[in-house]
Amino acid sequence: MHQKKKILSKLNLSVSEGKKAFALLIDPDKVQNLQELQRVIHTAIECKVDFFMVGGSLILSDFLGPCISHIKALTEIPVVLFPGNNQYIDLQADAIFYLSLISGRNPDLLIGQHVLSAPILKRSQMEVWPTGYMLIDGGNKTSVSYMSNTTPIPKDKYDIAMSTAIAGELLGQQLIYMDAGSGADQMISERMIASVKRAIDIPLIIGGGINNVQKAKSAWKSGADVIVVGNAIEKDPELLIEITEAKTLLNQQLNVH
Ligand SMILES: CC(C)=CCC/C(C)=C/CC/C(C)=C/CC/C(C)=C/COP(=O)(O)OP(=O)(O)O
Ligand SMILES: O=P(O)(O)OC[C@@H](O)CO
Ligand SMILES: [Mg+2]
């Protein structure tokens, strides 16, 4: 029998208490050298990030496995795979976002990649997190929209986003991840986040283009349960500390620390 999803249950519990979470996305291809990686991991550990995410739309380096093993060697903070396809699976991770790209109409990303990866995931010890993944237009063409061959939901089509998220929930997805794509010019708007959050009862993850502390706060305040930051921290690891301070303060104000 498959083991219980302990990490996901813990996340669900803190979300049900209204607690805000912060995930750091590490792109194996953007790691300059091992020292740089260790520095970011150490800062993330000091900040007690809620989880690490590792993955990419297209990975050219051989660094996916080493990235995960370096994190695992230093901390118990969970590592969650964020795979662009079934090749980017490494069984050292604790969990995997089993993404279905529900904003798109590309069958390979709704079921094809899942069929290819199902046997290995079923045999593994990893927690598999069924995730409705929705791309929202962030003003520029991102790797993920090009690589997925899908059109993101227009940024002001709140009803389409809401209905898509509800459909994901009704189909049994356990998380909704709305992403403007890595390096998006504009993060997802407050109104879009709030409309989707109101419509669903599963945790809402928001990412793409969150590159300063104001944007992180605005995403949380509009309804994000988890925010994901990648690019901006690669450029300035100190941002980890600022965002963590904002999270701590917000959780204190919400009385859920
Ligand atoms: C079920 C399995 C095994 C895989 C899921 C496959 C699906 C549905 C993927 C969705 C589409 C996709 C390509 C997602 C990738 C998301 C991701 C890891 C983004 C990280 O950012 P990058 O797109 O790599 O950005 P950069 O251009 O900044 O590197
Ligand atoms: O790299 P950034 O823009 O922070 O985006 C993070 C993540 O949501 C991308 O899929
Ligand atoms: Mg990438």
TrEMBL record:
Protein name from the UniProt record: Geranylgeranylglyceryl phosphate synthase
Source species: Marivirga aurantiaca
Cofactor(s) in the UniProt record: Mg(2+)
Its job: Prenyltransferase that catalyzes the transfer of the geranylgeranyl moiety of geranylgeranyl diphosphate (GGPP) to the C3 hydroxyl of sn-glycerol-1-phosphate (G1P).
EC numbers, comma separated: 2.5.1.41
Pfam families, A to Z: PcrB (PF01884)
Alphabetically ordered keywords of this record: Lipid biosynthesis, Lipid metabolism, Magnesium, Metal-binding, Phospholipid biosynthesis, Phospholipid metabolism, Transferase
Catalytic activity as recorded in UniProt: sn-glycerol 1-phosphate + (2E,6E,10E)-geranylgeranyl diphosphate = sn-3-O-(geranylgeranyl)glycerol 1-phosphate + diphosphate
Gene Ontology BP terms: glycerophospholipid biosynthetic process
